[in-house]
Fold this sequence. Notes:
Blueprint: E1 5-9, H1 13-26, E2 31-35, H2 38-47, E3 52-55, H3 64-73, E4 82-86, H4 91-100, E5 104-107, H5 112-125, H6 129-135, H7 149-153, E6 193-199, E7 202-211, E8 215-221, E9 232-239, E10 244-257, E11 266-273, H8 278-289
Amino acid sequence: MSKISVLVVDDASFIRDLVKKCLRNYFPGIRTEDAINGKKAQAMLTKEAFDLVLCDWEMPEMSGLELLTWCREQDNLKTMPFIMVTSRGDKENVVQAIQAGVSGYVSKPFTNEQLLTKVKQALNKIGKLDALMNSAPTKMNSAFGNDSLSALTGGKAPVVAAPAPAAAPARGLLNSPPVKAPAASAAPSGGRGHGQLRLPSGTQQCVIKALSLKEALLVVKRSENLPQILDSAVLDLEQGDNAEIARLNGYLHAVVAHEQKPDSEWLQLTFRFVDQDAQKLDYISRLIARGTAQKHFIPGA
């Protein structure tokens, strides 16, 4: 029997690798291919057959919604399972995807368990899950976990950054209205910009200390579930009077204590962007343009 094949579509290589690693860990007999956007995926779907597509929404050249719409217009792809994996978790976006014929919906950031549950449901509907599970070795590597790092490291324990003295705080760069900002009396001083950081373990409000085209320096209140290095995440930012919101995909590059003490109440996170979508890059550029001075950019970015 031929292998079950899955096409992973996302403009961020980090997300593609994350998804493929997760699938291969849980389904050793699966075959995975990837595409950097809807246009590339369209070309691949015309040349070879896939059992399932896992696709991002916001991508350059052709979005995930456009690819889904095109697939449902093709006789040979009308019933192919198509799961949207996206940071667009709003009700209106979910409804739009359902109307276009989506088979499942996974919101970023996702846990391995959430992703695998949707994949198993999709493969079960087309009668291919049992065959895939039976073809795998008796003892499979578990890809379940509450952090995305397990999908990248094959389940090895994550390396947590030790607390380190925080760099001198930079003035906030964003003059945008706050997005459910933490109370001013509780948040560290030195940051005017606020956002919302969505992690696999939950949502946290954050202060944006500095911003560049590659990364953002954030401060969040320490909680029971500590964020982990390489955790995938989504940073929601709002700008302007029209309340334009950007959902920026990325991962945690560094986690350190904001204060020079082991029980620091605040953590300083370096959030690296992974999106290659031109609209999102333009959005970040406009946010930077609203900053006060070049010296406030993240060094070396």
